[in-house]
């Protein structure tokens, strides 16, 4: 996957907390945790699971998740 965002931090998913429409995905990046708010649909589409590798992609004030 190629994207324009330069701030990409690899880590491991430690938690996925689902709400009514939005999930909070926590990624351990080596002792620090980054949390992204993404749609429940995105969690399902990306097949995110606790313990799997993921990348926090930071653009401006948003954090996205890519696998």
Automatic annotation (TrEMBL):
Record InterPro entries: Mo/tungstate-bd_C_term_dom, Mop_domain, Transp-assoc_OB_typ1
Highest taxon of the lineage: Bacteria
Keywords: Molybdenum
BP terms from Gene Ontology: molybdate ion transport
Keyword Transferase: no
Pfam family membership, one: TOBE
Record domain Mop: where: 2-67
Name listed for the protein in its UniProt record: Molybdenum-pterin-binding protein 2
Gene giving rise to this polypeptide: mopII
